[in-house]
Amino acid sequence: MRHTAFTPAGDLIAWTEAAGEGPARVYVHGLGAACAPYHAHVAADPALAGRRSLFVDLPGHGLSDRPRGFGYTLEDHARALGRVLDAAGIRGAEVVGHSMGGSVAVVLAHHRPELVSRLVLAEPNLDPDPPATAGSSGIARYTEEEFVHGGGMARTLERVGPVWRATMRLADPTALHRSAVGLVRGTRPTMRRLLTGLGVPRTLLTGALSPAPAGRAELAAAGVRLVTVPGAGHNIMFDNPAGYTAAIAARP
Length: 252
Description:
Blueprint: E1 2-5, E2 12-18, E3 21-28, H1 35-43, E4 51-57, H2 74-87, E5 93-98, H3 100-111, E6 116-122, H4 135-140, H5 144-149, H6 152-159, H7 162-168, H8 173-185, H9 191-197, E7 202-207, H10 216-221, E8 225-229, H11 236-239, H12 241-249
Parallel strand pairs: 3-4, 3-5, 5-6, 6-7, 7-8
Antiparallel strand pairs: 1-2, 2-4
């Protein structure tokens, strides 16, 4: 396990790393998740093994610190992720981001283009104000006080399924709420605008059991490779790990 500071106070963001050759591949988890449970089994597949691989826990999640004074916006998470790549001596990484992690990866690629050579995004949030059915919207409908101290976290843990609950209960409630609010707020320009403006190879994965992504024609016209993974919902890496691995391993 490795750490580097992401705040002036010295709060630490954590990642685990597997040695390998070639451009580094950096995996980034979604809201209320942690990286290794979602991606270690994928990186170990023979189609992906042998590449230097980093499994990053975003601030407030997993093994990383959870400072109360941190904002946990998408930009904040992207800056922290950039600190990891700087500390690891990485440039030109392939970044694989799931859900919120995909949004963070887009923001990182926009602000620090030297760090990213390719994006693989599994059902990322590309627009602000997602549907009320989205996990981030359900969390963000609470005030921070209600979520952290008024039972909102406990009610959310009861509502989500066992896979998400397993890692969400390890996340800091304040960090989880602020991250959800930041995800619902989005960025200006939007994550979608940032994504279509990037010059690196970009692959957007959608599970066949999930709704089709909005604006497919616009994304395709901007050069984004759209892949539908059969037999999968939002958690593609669990529902169809072979399909997820194949999409990551495919040459851009």
